[in-house]
Amino acid sequence: MGLRIEDFSGDKIHILEKDGVFVVKACAGSGKTCVVAAKISSLLRKWESNNRGIAAISFTNVAWQEIEDKLKKDFGVDSGLDYPHFIGTIDSFIDTYLLLPFGHLVLNCENRPEIIMNWEPEIRGKFECKKSGCKLSNLSYDINGNLISYSDSSHFSNCSLSHRYCKASKIQLRQSGYLTQADANFFVMKLLEKYPDIAKAIVYRFPVFLIDEAQDTSDVQMKIFDLLLENGLERLMLIGDPNQAIYEWRTANPEVFIRK
């Protein structure tokens, strides 16, 4: 027999019953995954819309797969995880619902945007900055649009050219429709800033957001959620353990979550 909402008590039942915008700061061993699955299960059982859904987002494929498995095994949710709902990674959500259909509005690219997963030789040969020794795969933008590097290499910090070639190469790359995932996050943030109607459309399509592993959120990703809130999102749960930020190397900033 699967778990029921009635089987929970204390803080967990409070989380399951709470609505609106709130943050849950969990700790290791607190049963976070089970609570997230229970929250989704509770929402699904009451869901009535056929074209508006729940966005249940995590930061890794492993994490959302664990949630999906728990939904099926512990809560008997064998169906209902598909349209109109979304359960998956934050990268997949950003790319599917924002970057690919609307990214061209801020990228000024002729082709459909494409996330570069493997830097093929022809891409490196055409766009790589040869003056500074930097690798474009390690470069992206901070929340203010400044070029930053995720590499420990000294090339970027010691550049005597003020990164002119790197910046020009990134622009060429973008105008050709190529981006890293970090680039995608930044330009989706700019997209929602420039086109609030798109943010409103996303909020209409997904009136409920559940963000698991929120401690791995970057400044830019958190700004994306803030922009959705500014444009009408009224139901958002952020849950995470700030002591288990495993993606700090990829611009994740646990302080962003802690401050919420």
Question: What is the topological layout?
Answer:
Blueprint: H1 10-17, E1 21-25, H2 32-46, E2 54-58, H3 61-75, E3 86-89, H4 90-102, H5 104-107, E4 114-115, H6 121-127, E5 139-141, E6 147-149, H7 164-175, E7 178-179, H8 181-194, H9 196-205, E8 208-211, H10 219-230, E9 235-240, H11 254-258
Parallel strand pairs: 1-9, 2-3, 2-8, 4-7, 8-9
Antiparallel strand pairs: 5-6
Structural summary, described in words:
Helix 2 packs across helix 3. It contains eleven helices and nine strands. The chain is an alpha/beta fold and 260 residues long. The two termini are 37 Å apart. The chain is globular, with a radius of gyration of 20 Å. It has a five-stranded parallel beta sheet. It has two domains: 159 residues, P-loop containing nucleotide triphosphate hydrolases (Rossmann fold, 3-Layer(aba) Sandwich); 52 residues, no CATH class. One of its GO terms (molecular function) is DNA binding.
